[in-house]
Amino acid sequence: MRILTINPGATSTKIGYVEEEEIVYQETIAHSVEKLQVFDHVQDQLELRLQAVLDQVHEWGLNLKLLDGIGARGGLLPPVQSGAYEINQAMLDYLMYRPRVEHASNLGALLAEKIRAVAGKKTRAFVYDPVTVDEFPPVARISGLKGMERESIGHALNMRAVAREVAENQQRTYEDVTYIVAHLGGGNSISLHHQGRMVDLISDDEGPFSTERTGELPVKQVIAWCYDHSQKEMMTHYRKQGGVLSYLGTNDAREVEKRIAIGDEEASLVYEAMAYQISKGIGSLAPIVAGKVEGIIMTGGLAYSDVLMAAVEKQVAFIAPVYRVPGERELMALAKGVARVLRGEELSHQLTC
């Protein structure tokens, strides 16, 4: 089976070509900030990114007409179930003209449909496990303030992929396990996976701070800050200038660990605090299943850090065995999801919005 995968990020587009569930080619196409800054909206970047993807595919020597499927990272769609969604006009219109939030991932389906048109009618295009996968039960939606619901927005694609991988390594199925998965990097999110569903999630504004995001903050102090800062400034503090960066002036965990190694006490305290908050987040999800957790999985870029992972494992190993699956599996997760649909092992959904 021949599948092209597409994962747009803020300043890059990752693409991969997979045959029979083996990655043959993959590339991260960088887009200069200068070129992106001329566009008023993320959607306006479509043609620029499309041409970059087509150029890379041409360099690989691929014949798009031989593709069986295309898998793209899903953007900020309305809340959806997990799994595959075949790209249709309703989805394209939503992402192009009325997205709930402007985000680079919204370009995934738009790029996939453009490439599918070149490939021909026999090629099918899907998004898989969008960032808005929402399988919360009603009790999990209660926030504490009527009219403000908790939402499930996070790294669903990679978190579900690594949960499947760990389950398969244990000769289990994803539908038969209960795991807590922590995706740790520029933004942190922690999710509970129970019997094939992601039933709760601590998003990057509810839980531990990351290398550049604040995580959960003291609400009374946030209210006071809002009187002195615009909404744009507050969002910048929360998403781009918070976390480790706000304390230490860097969002590079490797730099922080170098400082710790030479005795920087502030760096040591901040890193310890990040591990402390990650551990609190993991621990807060265990009671939902009465502590019957079968594994804790660490993934994302920060899972490469032996220092951070050792600190977290020390605090949470009493709950369940800890597994490290560092980095991200998103391109392969897209390919495997599309392949399951094309083989008839999994049904795809249709978005109506």
Automatic annotation (TrEMBL):
UniProt EC number: 2.7.2.7
Major location (coarse): cytoplasm
BP GO terms, sorted: acetate metabolic process
Swiss-Prot/TrEMBL catalytic activity: butanoate + ATP = butanoyl phosphate + ADP
Molecular function GO labels: acetate kinase activity; ATP binding; butyrate kinase activity
Top-level taxon: Bacteria
GO cellular component: cytoplasm
Keyword tags: ATP-binding, Cytoplasm, Kinase, Nucleotide-binding, Transferase
Matches recorded under InterPro entries: Aliphatic_acid_kin_short-chain, ATPase_NBD, Butyrate_kin
Subcellular location: Cytoplasm
Cited HAMAP family: Butyrate_kinase (MF_00542)
Family membership noted in the UniProt record: Belongs to the acetokinase family.
UniProt name for this protein: Probable butyrate kinase
